[in-house]
Amino acid sequence: MKKIIAVDGPAGAGKSTVSKIVAAKLGYTYIDTGAMYRAVALKSSRSCEDLIMLIDDIEIELDDRARVFLDGVEVTKEIRTPEISKLASDVSKFGFVRKKLTELQRKMAERGSVIMDGRDIGTQVLPNADLKIFLTASLNERARRRFEELQMKGQEVDFDAIKKEIALRDKQDTEREIAPLKKAEDAILIDSTNLTIDEVAGKILTLCSTD
Description:
Order of helices and strands: EHEHHEEEHHEHEHHEH
Strand content: 15-25%
Number of strands: 8
Strand order of the largest sheet: 2-6-1-7-8
Number of helices: 9
Radius of gyration: 16 Å
Largest sheet: 5 strands, parallel
C-alpha cells in the first residue's frame, strides 16, 4: 500500500475533492497545500506588512475536517473567494513564500500516511512520494465545476469571467520561474473531464493498492 500520495494538477481539476475521498477511504491525513497559499494571500490582503516579514511568523494549520486556521483563527470560508484565489497565485511566485510553505508541508507529511495535493507536490515538495498523480480536465469543464461550486455557496458569478480567471491561473502557474506547475516524469496522468469524482477516486485507490 502506498503511504505518501502526491496529487498535482491545475485549478478546478478536482484535486481537493478527490483527495479528501481517498484520504477518508484509506484513513490517511489529507493536506490541501492550495489552502495554505490562500491563507498567505488572505493575510497579505488584510495587512500592510511586507510579505517577507508577514510570512516569517505565519501559522497555518489544517485539521482532519479540512478546516483551515490562520494564526489560530479559522478562515476556511474566507480563503475560497475568486479574489483570494487570484492573489494566492500571485504570492506563490515568490521563492521565500514557497520555501516557507514547503517546509511546513514536509513537516506535515512526516506525521504518517498522507495524501497531499497542490501544483508542485510530486516535483518539489515530495519528490520521493510513493504514488504521484497528475489530475487534469478541460478548461471548460474546470470552469463549469468552479462556477457551480461558487453558485452553491450563494456567490453571484459569471461563467465567462471564471473561465478567464482559470485560464490566467493556468498561465501563471505553468510559466512561473519557481516550481512551475508540471507533471512529474513518474506521475500517472488522469483526465477527469468525463469522469465522476467517485470514478477518479476509484482509479487512485486501485493504484494505491498496486505494488
